[in-house]
Amino acid sequence: MVKVRQDAWSHEDDLLLAETVLRHIREGSTQLNAFEEVGDHLNRTSAACGFRWNAEVRNKYDNAIDLAKRQRKERKRALNKSLQGVPKAAPTDNTEKVSTSENTDQTTPRTDLDPMSAMNLDTVIKYLKSLKKDLYTTNQSKSSMQALENENKSLRTNVEELQKKLVDTEQQLHAMKEDYQTFIQIMDRARKMTVFEDTNLINSPTFRMDKNGNLEQLAQGSN
Known about the structure:
Layout: H1 11-26, H2 31-42, H3 46-57, H4 62-84, H5 95-107, H6 114-203, E1 206-209, E2 215-218
Antiparallel strand pairs: 1-2
Helix pairs in contact: 1-2, 1-4, 2-3, 4-6
């Protein structure tokens, strides 16, 4: 079946990839074999695993890679020494000498590997500290992401409330405009009526009775 998985890599996937590659390095295998093994386990292609390792994961395990390479050299060195220490066929009179030599090698403590062991321990400690630091950074990032999501949610709620207030304000403004237009029309009508009444008062004739009892029209503006 063709591997077409394209979902995101999880932290567990990256950890499996790193552990598998480091194990293959320690055992003297190739990274390609490690990619194929991880690909079979995660249903991904070996190319995808290799790209993920080189692009994202490898730079987090520099100390672990150095440690795995040293362990691989130690394994080879120990294997070569064990092969060199295999006794060859010897005459009968040398059997006791060979046996004594073997007993000496078995009882004599190996001190030549102590500095390397101490170095490996320091590297392991550094590696564990780097993992702890990465874990702390990851937790910090998750906390920051959660805080940003909460802040974003709060801002969205505020925006929705402001939008509702804006709609209400626009409706009130529209009503005020209509009332203002109505008021202007009323004032205009009142002004026209006042002017019309004043005109009628000015143009209407004024009469008075003379001595003979006749009405006579007074001129405009006269008392």
